[in-house]
Structures are given as structure tokens and as C-alpha cells.
Amino acid sequence: MPTNFTAGPVRVRVPATSANLGPGFDALGLALGLYDDLAAEVAPAGVRVTVTGQGAGELPTDDRHLVVRAMRATFDVLGGQPAGLAVECVNRIPQARGLGSSSAAIVAGVLLARALVTDGEDRLDEPGVLGLAAEIEGHPDNVAPCLLGGFTLAWSEPTGARAVSLAVAEGVRPTVFVPSERGLTATARAALPATVPHADAAFTAGRAALLVHALTADPSLLLPATVDRLHQDYRAAGMPATFALVNELRAAGVAAVVSGAGPTVLALSEPPADFPLGTDWEFWKLPIDVSGARVARGRLGHAERDPVAAGRKS
């Protein structure tokens, strides 16, 4: 079937995410109330990307931009490429910090492309969006909460990625500690061994199961539920400041973990008011996003073009 494109722009809001949450390596994720806003429309020719906020002046503004690459992959699935594209990105999610900026870009690109095809939702349903986004990203733990919102459990089957979103219990109050330094997922993954001791795998599986209960029913168990032996310790040497902060927070009774591949630290319980924090860190109290990615027609409004992360407390 020929691919027909809609006239006019479409826009999408995508949340930041934190993956792993300690023992839930490559499976558990949480959507956070910090957002990128993007808009796109079909153009007569060429590709033009404008970036405001995080990554401005650093990210490519042509076909190399991750949002455009995700859009191109989606258009291929939907049957054809438009003549050109104009994309606007207002980024508030820090780049390369472990808060899902890449997954947000991928999810945004897939959803924008689908919305620009007149029958896009018929050709690519919600499971198809998740599967395609996970295929582009390489794993589903960040794209799932970005799409669905809330606390997500993601897994892969021969037919593709699957995920469910669960409501989070009252009393879970995320705080992210964001350093000025950046990290790379590929570098963090390279630090992982090919095998781990069976006892460590069994221990971590038990804590991951406990974490589901703690996040959805009993936050008083978050501290023991966030102990991990599968991946965090192997990455410690590459992020000494991150792991020092995790250990200091946990010693103070705070359920702290590395956010995704780091170097951001995620606390799932309230840090003490007098907790000492060095000048190399910013900390933001963020709500849990329960809606996931949201698509609408039209251009970005004035408030959506504001690159400041409205609502975050620090």
C-alpha cells in the first residue's frame, strides 16, 4: 500500500527514565517527571533539526540525529519515506547521564513518524511501537517506561519486546543526583563479565522480586530490595564518585542505586534534609510519570519550548 503523510506538524512529550533500579538489570524501569518536547512535520525536501536545551550545539542537526534515525526506521516499517523532514527538539533530559535520553529520542522518533502517516496506528500498533523502539535501542528497559509510564517490567520474546506497567505505591519519592560528568552505556556494559557466580544471580533474582513488591505495595522494604550483585559492583571502578555517593546514601538508610548505566544516582526514598552533597552534583526531586509518551497534533507551544525543566525541585 502507498504511504500517505499528514499535513501539518505533530508533537510528542516523552519522559525521562531510570532503568535497572538496582537488581532489575535490563528488565525494570521507572518513568520520571522530566520531559523532552518534540515536534515534526513533512517538508518538501531535506532534513532540518533544531535543538534547544540539553545537547544544543552538540547533537547533529541532520539525518544523523537519533530522533531522525528512529523516524527513518519507522517510515521503513510503515512503507515509505517522506520527501523531507523538519524536527524541533526541546531537550530537558540530561544527555549521557543514565536518565534515558537516548530512549526518549527513539520513542519520540517512532511515535512522531507513526503520527505523520495517515493510517500509521493501523499499520503499527502499540506492541509494535514497543518492539521497534526496543530493537533500535537494543534492550527494552528504558523504552518501556518512556512509552507506558509508571514502573515497568520488560522482557523479550522471539516475537519481540513485551512490557507491563504497574502503579507505584505512595511513599516512593524519587530523587536524582546528576553529576556534571557524562557516561556511555557501551562503556558501562563493557565492564560486565561474561558470567557471574550462580549464588550472585540467585541473590539478585530474589531482590528483584522483592523490589516489585516494595515499589508497588511496601516502600519500607526499598533498602533491602535494591541490593544488587549482578552489575553495579563491576561498574564501580569506572564511576568512583557515583558509587561513593550510592554507598553514602545507603549508609544513611536511603534506597539509592545507579540510574541506568550511570553516572546519575537514583534515590527511591527521601534523603535526609542535612545529607551532605558536593558541588559536583545537582539533585532534583522528580514525580513519577504515570502517562508515558503523549502525542498530539500541532506545533510546540510557548511553555513547551521553554528549555528549563519546569516543576523539578533542587
TrEMBL record:
Keywords for the protein's UniProt record, in alphabetical order: Amino-acid biosynthesis, ATP-binding, Cytoplasm, Kinase, Nucleotide-binding, Threonine biosynthesis, Transferase
PROSITE patterns per UniProt: GHMP_KINASES_ATP
SUPFAM superfamilies: GHMP Kinase, C-terminal domain (SSF55060), Ribosomal protein S5 domain 2-like (SSF54211)
GO molecular function terms attached to this record: ATP binding; homoserine kinase activity
Pfam family, one: GHMP_kinases_N
Keyword Transferase part of the UniProt annotation: yes
Signal peptide residue numbers: none
Residues spanning the membrane: none
UniProt GO BP: threonine biosynthetic process
Domain called GHMP kinase C-terminal: residue spans: 229-273
EC supergroup of this enzyme: transferase
Reaction equations catalysed: L-homoserine + ATP = O-phospho-L-homoserine + ADP + H(+)
Cell compartments where the protein resides: Cytoplasm
EC numbers, comma separated: 2.7.1.39
Family: Belongs to the GHMP kinase family. Homoserine kinase subfamily.
The protein's role, per its UniProt record: Catalyzes the ATP-dependent phosphorylation of L-homoserine to L-homoserine phosphate.
UniProt protein name: Homoserine kinase
Organism of derivation: Micromonospora profundi
Lineage, highest ranks first: Bacteria, Bacillati, Actinomycetota, Actinomycetes, Micromonosporales
